[in-house]
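Changelog-adjacent note: as of this version, every example in the card shows the full chain rather than a window. The one below runs 823 residues end to end.
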Amino acid sequence: MATEKNTLEMLEDLNPRRFNETDDEKYGDFLSDFDFATLALVIRKSLGWFALIFIACISACFLYLRYTKPVYESVSVLKLDLRSSAGVLGFRGFRDESVQEATKLTTISGEMEFLKSNVVLSRVIKTINLDITYYAVGNVINQEMYNISPFKVVFDKANISPDFLNKRIDVVIIDTSTYMLSYNFAGEKISKKYQFGDTVKNEKFTFQVLPTKHLKRDCINNEYYFIINSDEAILNYLQKNLSVTLLNLDASTIKVIFRDFNPYKAADIVNIIDSVYLVTTIESRNASHQKVLDFLANSLIRTENNLKQAELNLQDFVEDNKTFDTKSDFNKYISKIESIENEKLQIKLKITTLEDLEQLLLSDKKEIETFIPSSSQIPDPQLIEAIKLRNTLYHEMSRLEESQKDNTYAMRLKEKEINTVNQTLHQLISKNKRLLHQQIYELNKKLNEFENYVAELPEKETNFTRLKRFYSLYDKFYLQLIEREAEYAIAKAGTVPGFVVLKQGNINKVPVFPNKKILYISSVLVSIFLCIILVFVRYFLHDTIATQKEIEKSVNAAVLGGVPEYNKEKMEFSKLLVDKNPKSAISEALRSIRTNLEFLCPDKPKKIISVTSTVGGEGKTFISTNLAGIIAMSGQRVIIIDLDMRKPKVHIAFDKENIKGMSTMLIGKHSVEECINKTSIPTLNFISAGPVPPNPSELILRPDFDNIINKLFQHYDTIVIDTPPVGLVTDAMIVMKKADVPLYIVRANYSKKGVKRNINKVVRSGDFKNLAIIINALQIINTYGYGGYGYGYGYGYGYGYYEGENKGIKMKWLKKISLFKRS
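Full-length structure tokens:
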């Protein structure tokens, strides 16, 4: 019972319900178990889908091109002249290069927006006749009849009601003189025949339909229609299809692009836009020139007035200061001051001389007769003469003193004369002193005046310099304005546009949309991408084991070999095939496995081989019967025991009944000899499972089971036991403990990838050193040499041990036709 308990605990860990893989585990297996052989299998099985995807993408591309109107493009290239008015006027400043670049870009952007503005487009509408559009009705696409319409409509837009603008009016040409006109009016379709040239008139519109030179006999019975466009619709049409882009900033070139379904119409519109832009630019430049001329005229008046005022201010300064050169005046007045100082000094010397003379006269000394001042010191001649007279009188008196006495008349007369002369001298000295002091006063007055003038010279020099500067500035600016006015008057007379058309809009008959080459290449790339996605998704969803190599690198058990798939017919249950096809690929594969088995137990001449799998349908019964058959065909005595007592299948493989077998033997109802059945191979026998018991596990745990095995070894060399799936019930683990070589069957493209972890857990938990794996139903590209013979098998049965498993098996045919079927 202890052994049974341990076995049950181990089996609980191996329960398939506990092997449900999480998304992280699947993704981890996907990364770690990447297998090129599996990838090749997925690719091979997806080849049909690849062809379907490729055909679908190419067909979609073809249909898109077939039912899509081609769009044509016309391009003109303009080179802009970005000279500014300030630059032309000569008012250039110093700018940083980045500022100049930004200014240039701003100017070009402004011109590009101007080209797309309503100002230009409104004039384009007036220049080109876009008021009406003619179409020919086609089977798939309606074609615009630009300039090739077989008829034309003459109308006045004032006579067209807004209700009929942008509405379709159908025309069917009956013959070269008659047509049928159809239109919707008040919810009713009206059709009426008219002659070309008749006036079509009602309360909503008035127009005439006239034939053109393009009206040919092949136009008869063809359907046409025309649309009278409103100004808003035309403007929206131009704005929608017109684009202006920068071509080269350094060269100041832009591209004018217009797209339309008609290449001739696109080229005409581009060229008309250039022409309108040319006229608008000339008018704008003329207006700009006139504004500049007005500015120059006003500036000339203001500058002339300022110049006159500067002249008056300069004139007033010269009149007030009586000089043009204050620097030379400064030197001149300094010289005058020095001259006055010298003159004052001379006068003071004269005053001193007069004072000395006066002192001599007051001293009444005779020595005075020897004092005769020079005329340079005493400029008054009377004073000099009086001094000479006094000296003469003193000489005469000296001579009289020698001959006469003091009281004589002659002496008294001389003294009287001398006194008179002295009085005269005193008077003259006083008079000259007064005159000299008066001169000094006058000189001091002049000196003060000159000194004050010299002190005012710096301020006058500043004012004079300022007045001259303003005068020079206004004079230069006035002359410059006169020159610019003359230049702009000449420029206005010969105004040229501010751009050059480097390339005119041409008629390009190669559509820019849709681009066939790009679309076909894109469709091929899309199909390749979808195929890659399909392969990736199918590989990622391919959660079954596909190759022998995948098992070998992932499990801790030996792989004995692989058995190729049998696809000649659909087998509803397992059969013994090796006796009927001894040289088939399946037989050869099983012989190889038989050889490998000898290496697992070389020391045991007699051995027990248990065969199990994870779930039903993986081919354990098929491998058990046919492997036992191959071993028996080598001369060994082999017996197969069907221990899958819940779902017995071995007796079906040999087309025998299951009345008695292991279940009845274990309960002692039948003996071993009674339950042995013979097969078509003389050395191969089998024991069926017998009736289904309620407790298969307990029966296997009885000592009777070991006694049966020992008894069978007395007559057989190899015992092959077909056990239940190890992931469903506990019976298999019990038998695997007793087996010399436990075999684990994995079916390619059927067994889940979780089986690899299941096998590893079985090896770790059960300590099965000789556990070996056989891969069943290998395909041609998945084996190491067993493919291509046309052998293998399929299963249409399963073990319904758990609820819902039969449903999954029954729905297997749906998976085969689904896009992401389990391969």
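Structural remarks: Residues 1-30, 84-95, 781-823 have pLDDT under 50 and may be disordered.
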